[in-house]
Amino acid sequence: MMNRYINIFRYLTALGAVLFGAIAVFGKESELMYLGIMLLMLSLNVFAHAINLRGKRENKAKEITSYVVGSIVFFVSVFLILRNW
């Protein structure tokens, strides 16, 4: 049951990343703000992938790598959003 909710969350964050990426490319406003939000969606997607790996108990190295990459992307996205506020 939890795996189903994780997959729904992953698809929604991927959709959000695509939408905000399109706005950043084609929009005339501040592109960095939308790029930061797109990166935030991608970091949430990576965290959801790590939670999914934890539930499966398959590969501990992939899980830890997903948490590290998700954290780095999260901090970069927050920096971009706050810089352009």
Automatic annotation (TrEMBL):
UniProt keywords, alphabetically: Membrane, Transmembrane, Transmembrane helix
Transmembrane region(s): 7-26, 32-52, 64-82
Keyword Transmembrane helix: yes
Protein name (Swiss-Prot/TrEMBL): Uncharacterized protein
Organism of provenance: Paenibacillus thiaminolyticus (Bacillus thiaminolyticus)
